[in-house]
Amino acid sequence: MDKNLNTSSERKQNCSDENKCFELLESILDGEGAVDSKEMLNEKLAKCQPCFEHYHLEKVIKEILQNKCTKHMVPSELAATIRQKIQELK
Amino acid sequence: MSEVQRKKYSDKDKNNIFDHEFMPHIDSMYNFAYRLTFDEDDAKDLVQDTYLKAYRFINSFEKGTNAKAWLFRILKNSFINEYRKKSKQPAKVDYQEVETYYNSDNVDYSMTSDLRVDAVKDMLGDEISNALNSLAVDFRTVIILCDLEGFTYEEMAKILDIPIGTVRSRLHRARNLLKDKLRSYAENMGYDTEEE
Q: Best interface-test mutation with B: which of A64, A73, A76 has the largest number of B CBs within 10 A?
């Protein structure tokens, strides 16, 4: 890969097909990319500023969703209630 | 989900499946139910109904297969069929309307492009949760299933009864909507979202 492409000023500032590219980037982020997607990803991010920004923003959002999203505690009696209802079914 | 051969489990098998394959997912199930209903009692009822249905139809579950996806599918369908009607949440933007809007070619991406990575990193769990909760249910659901629960696109397609291509595009639209919300939070936090 051309090292000169690694700064933002070297990347193209407009993406010709944002919708398609962004969907593809998100698929890769979700672990759904094809086998060769890692290579394709690096190339795309090196060449296209909107793709570079989109990928990194989505990556951070995915991480905070996974790590910070408020978890709701399961009411303690719920499992017992379910088991009891099932006993009644039998 | 594809048609499976109906089993004839003994009571011992049933209890075994229920305890070891179904019950371990109760935390995820409750969280999903809460994010669909926004109400503790409704979420409890929904999870309880789902587990009762799962037990009743346990013969159509194949032991050792993906119990979590199977249970999530039942929960989602129960929500659509029963709880959505009496849901206490206020009316949301019509899904079809939003889907069509974001499907069009002339979407203005500049709306979200100015949200900064640093601003997102500084957000609190409640802010993220509120932003997620404010999305229409179909968009909220794909983000929950993908990002919070880690389902694959294939599993999501089965849970939601939609093609994989629709999973992919709906996720993309949902994420654009979520970024709009996060951007307004970032502005309220005093982050300058306009300039470098």
A: A64
